[in-house]
């Protein structure tokens, strides 16, 4: 039996055709699952019994199991157990414009960024599409929480699980699926260059976040091993490729690490690196982990850095911190639970 949340619209159409059913029924079934949030196919009223029976035999509507939930005023963190008992996390940021859900794409991560607590656990496996879509559906179906933005920025490197992540995006974006517009779906990568080129060719995409975190190869090599495989020059070229089509938006994520990448000289170098790219730099306060050698830059230093970028006509924002009291912030997911 297949999990329905991993089936794309076109796959369901093909399935119906294979049963000699009218593929127009795909819309009815997708709408029932994603809009009405049925938990049993028998709840679909406008389909004949034999088809409902067949759907129930072939697909399950089961979701990841929530095993823990922590909340504060502005964020929530959920722990989910998968069918094989592996654990993942998702975090909800409650923003003025709606709830933004940050989902994981892998169990563990192999990118081994020096500052990231989540990435200290080696990748055990990729998440299936149904497990990524399931994180969203759980919020909507079981917690009755409307999700208006999905960010694929939890644990894992989405471009190291490319096919499953792309299929998830298609379901999230589908008019009969969650129907979140492309501006409401974002994905963050540490910089797997060939996949950025591949991603650039997709039609329905208009935003991408790059975890840049350094203005030159020397610093980036220290922070992110991926940079040794795909150095900045190649990464910047890939980003230019992505931007070359109209309407594409790029966010450069830059964690501010005290005395490592936060000097005004670093800011000037960053401005120079990005001068030909239409992007927004997002300065992020480092969330404390117990990893030695990394601490957040002072507010004063962040402001100085910000000013240099502004003066050099780089679009820049400072990210608000969410959920640090419940360790729901970037780079902290799963860290405490797995020690138990
Ligand atoms: N692998 C992807 C997505 C997961 S990490 C990527 O690298 O982009 C999501 C973001 O959190 C990345 O920008 C990552 O560099 C950042 N991050 C990791 N640890 C952090 C920490 N302790 N404080 C702030 N951001 C952190």
Structure, explained:
With 340 residues, the chain is of the alpha/beta class. It is built from eleven helices and 14 strands. The strands form three sheets. A ten-stranded mixed beta sheet has the order 3-4-5-6-9-10-11-12-13-14, with helices on one face. A two-stranded parallel ribbon has the order 1-2. The chain has a two-stranded antiparallel sheet with strand order 7-8. Helix 10 links the parallel strand 12 (249-256) and strand 13 (279-285). Helix 10 packs parallel to helix 11 (299-311). The protein is elongated and about 70 Å long. Mean pLDDT is 92; it is low at 334-340. S-adenosyl-L-homocysteine is lined by residues 111, 113, 115-116, 153, 157, 188-190, 211, 253, 255, 284, 286-287, 289, 330-331.
Bound molecules: S-adenosyl-L-homocysteine
Main sheet attributes: strand count, strand direction, barrel closure: 10 strands, mixed
> Residue share in helices?
25-40%
- What's the N-to-C terminus distance? 33 Å
Q: How many DSSP H or I helices?
A: 11
Shape: elongated
